[in-house]
User: Which sequence fits this backbone?
């Protein structure tokens, strides 16, 4: 009995412990499950955010491929998309067509992941293509916390040959062809129109030598015609698309077949390109502070003054026939000054080896005998004010970085490695000397005037001009050796001057309000027709009828144009303006006029050797169009955009992870 | 007999302490566990809500991708070898779960 009671002792406590244990297990299980659920949810949320970041990368890559100026961009990019501001990306590794295409995608993935994880960016992507540039892959990664998601997009471009505008006729119009006087179309001519009289051949010696094509379903007779059996009897065909004055026998009819087009042709005007992007300048350096102060430095007469240490000066004046020598002795010396003036026959000598950095708060004026660098010395001049160089001097500067008005007016040789002008004031050159830029010329100014002399760019250098007002070349000024030139200006006025490209170079000009050439000026004369492109966005009529020479693509957004005369315009003319008037002397080289919404008028003795696409075509005088089968060669891939850029439209789009 | 009564009374007294101790333990444990459980239940409910919202947001964003036209309200600057290129489009964002956001950049088209 006593043992039995002893066994029951602690029973309630035991039960309580069991209950507690069960409750604890249940609770821990529930809490663990919920915590797991939360963690999974957070992970899913992070992965979703990372996924859409990766997709954003793909969108940016596609936008780059769709832009003319970046369609050839290949490589690894990375950056961040910030809400409420703008996204910022950079190219961290540049590739060419064909790079990494055959090596397998894993290498590209590694490169992109490496670019992403070595920075604080959210998105990294790579664009790479096969060697022909028709198949692309975009590999994009997005990251959020520890979650990394990737998206791969395969893009194949095809069908370009079918999309390309067909140039198999000397003249093709949407609505009207009229030829009079003794004008001729040597080759085939056609129109989409079926309206009676849409091809109107007047009396006289005018002629279309090839087959005439009229719109689908149009009446292919000629009105009026002659009765083959009774030649003196005229037959009327009121619905005939082709009208011909004075047909007196059937010979003309026999020699001029008229057919219907197989299908209506579409010639679309390409989108007018956007202006080039702003120049991205190197950072203007912060001027050094705390250098030993020396006050003003005046070196005059026949004296010589030597500087061997960094220092801060007030105004530096070198005048008379004196010399200011910077003896670098293998060091880099920084000189901070309020202003710099070299005048008379004075000069500055910089003895290397080493680098002299001249920081000028105010203005810098160099005339006299200039600046000479010796023994591999490098001279960089950074001026917050105006910079002028004038006189018959030779100056060697590694980097000239000006934030103010910049006048380079020497008649000697000004040699620069880099010329950076980031200013809201004018940039000008004068004198008969040469300004030679070896690496980069980045010029942003209110206006740019080259009134004589030569700007000589070394092959392979980069030239960018962002001019708010007018760029003017006068006094037989020359710009030579343009390699990678971009000019964004209000007006390009080549009043009397020449722009020449380096071998293999190219130049893009965007003129928002005016483009003019005159006085024997030339632009890429004798050069590659595909190397120059001028995009003219202004509304003022374009007149290139003087004694000028232009070789390249000319894209006119909305203005009427007069071309030819004693001038020679070779290449492709794309126009969205109401009229294109071609007149004057024969054009010797192949020219195509692509103005599918415009009226093209040929007057006088104008001759086009190539092809014309227009809405209406009217030829008078002794003008002639001679069909040239190689017309399609005139079209650089980017000139017609997606209609016929040789790459066609995106045909295949395959997504994967 | 005396011995037996003393033993009985000792057994009864021990049971009361035992009950009190048990109650105390249970109360302490329950007091600890209940808020934890309540929080977990709230979190579970919130998780269900966020999961549903995420699915809705994902669905919305997928539909946004296929919208045929896009404006130019957002710009992305791309630095390519020192040249600054601007790519335009829209930054489409969707809010979910009290202030959280998922966004995608869609190029202008």
Assistant:
């Amino acid at each position: 009995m006593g043992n039995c009671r002893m066994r029951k002792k602690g029973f309630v406590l035991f039960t309580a412990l069991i209950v507690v244990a069960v409750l604890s297990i249940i609770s821990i299980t529930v809490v663990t499950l919920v915590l797991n659920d939360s963690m999974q949810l957070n992970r899913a949320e992070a992965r979703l955010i990372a996924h859409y970041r990766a997709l954003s990368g793909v969108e940016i890559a596609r936008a780059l491929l769709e832009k003319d100026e970046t369609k050839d961009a290949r490589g690894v990019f990375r950056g961040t998309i910030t809400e409420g501001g703008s996204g910022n990306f950079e190219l961290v590794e540049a590739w060419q067509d064909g790079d990494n295409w055959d090596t397998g995608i894993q290498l590209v993935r590694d490169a992109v992941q490496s670019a992403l994880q070595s920075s604080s960016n959210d998105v990294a992507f790579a664009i790479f293509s096969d060697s022909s540039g028709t198949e692309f892959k975009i590999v994009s990664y997005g990251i959020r916390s520890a979650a990394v998601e990737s998206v791969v997009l395969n893009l194949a471009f095809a069908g370009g040959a079918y999309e390309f505008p067909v140039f198999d006729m000397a003249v093709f119009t949407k609505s009207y062809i009229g030829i009079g006087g003794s004008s001729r179309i040597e080759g085939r001519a056609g129109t989409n129109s079926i309206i009676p009289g849409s091809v109107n051949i007047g009396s006289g010696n005018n002629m279309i030598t090839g087959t005439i094509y009229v719109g689908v379903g149009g009446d292919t007779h000629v009105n009026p015609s002659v009765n083959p059996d009774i030649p003196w009897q005229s037959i009327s065909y009121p619905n005939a698309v082709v009208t011909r004055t004075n047909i007196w026998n059937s010979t003309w009819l026999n020699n001029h077949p008229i057919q219907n087009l197989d299908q209506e042709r579409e010639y679309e005007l390409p989108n007018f390109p956007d202006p080039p992007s702003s120049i991205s300048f190197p950072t203007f350096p912060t001027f050094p502070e705390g250098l030993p102060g020396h006050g003003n430095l005046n070196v005059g007469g026949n004296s010589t003054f030597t500087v061997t240490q960094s220092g801060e000066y007030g105004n530096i004046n070198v005048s008379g026939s004196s010399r200011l020598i910077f003896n670098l002795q293998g060091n880099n010396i920084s000189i901070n000054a309020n202003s710099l003036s070299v005048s008379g026959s004075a000069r500055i000598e910089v003895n290397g080896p080493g680098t002299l950095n001249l920081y000028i708060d105010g203005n810098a004026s160099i005339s006299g005998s200039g600046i000479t660098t010796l023994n591999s010395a490098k001279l960089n001049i950074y001026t917050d004010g105006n910079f002028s160089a004038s006189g018959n001097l030779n100056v060697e500067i590694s980097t000239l970085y000006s934030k103010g008005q910049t006048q380079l007016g020497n008649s000697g040789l000004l040699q620069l490695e880099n010329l950076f002008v980031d200013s809201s004031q004018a940039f000008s050159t004068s004198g008969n000397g040469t300004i030679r830029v070896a690496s980069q010329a980045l010029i942003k100014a209110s206006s740019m005037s080259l009134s004589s002399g030569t700007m000589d760019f070394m092959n392979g250098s980069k030239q960018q001009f962002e001019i708010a007002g007018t760029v003017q070349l006068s006094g037989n000024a020359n710009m030579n050796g343009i390699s990678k030139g971009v000019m964004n200006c209000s007006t390009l006025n080549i009043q009397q001057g020449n722009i020449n490209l380096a071998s293999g170079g190219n130049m893009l000009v965007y003129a928002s309000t005016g483009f003019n050439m005159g006085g024997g000026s030339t632009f890429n004369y004798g050069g590659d027709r595909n190397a120059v492109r001028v995009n003219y966005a202004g509304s003022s009529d374009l007149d290139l009828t003087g004694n000028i020479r232009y070789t390249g693509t000319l894209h006119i957004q909305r203005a009427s144009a007069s071309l030819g005369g004693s001038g020679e315009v070779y290449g492709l003319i794309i126009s969205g303006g109401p009229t294109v008037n071609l007149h004057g002397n024969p054009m010797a080289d192949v020219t195509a006029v692509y103005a599918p919404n415009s009226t093209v008028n040929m007057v006088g003795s104008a001759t086009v050797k190539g092809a014309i696409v227009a809405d209406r075509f009217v030829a008078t005088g002794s003008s002639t169009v001679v069909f040239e089968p190689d017309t399609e060669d005139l079209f650089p891939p980017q000139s017609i955009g997606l209609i016929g850029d040789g790459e066609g439209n995106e045909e295949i789009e395959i997504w994967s992870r | 007999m005396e011995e037996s009564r003393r033993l009985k009374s000792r057994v009864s007294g021990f049971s009361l302490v035992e009950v009190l101790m048990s109650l105390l333990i249970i109360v302490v444990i329950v007091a600890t566990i209940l808020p934890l459980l309540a929080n977990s239940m709230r979190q579970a409910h919130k998780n269900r809500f966020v999961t549903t919202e995420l699915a809705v947001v994902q669905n919305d964003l997928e539909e946004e991708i296929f919208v045929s036209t896009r404006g130019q309200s957002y710009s992305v600057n791309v630095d390519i070898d020192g040249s600054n290129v601007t790519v335009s489009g829209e930054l489409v964002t969707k809010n979910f779960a009290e202030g959280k956001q998922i966004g995608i950049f869609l190029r202008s088209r």
In short: Chain B touches chain A through 55 residues (CB under 8 Å). Residues 21 and 27 of chain B are 10 Å apart (CA to CA). The mean pLDDT of chain B is 81. Chain B has one helix and three strands.
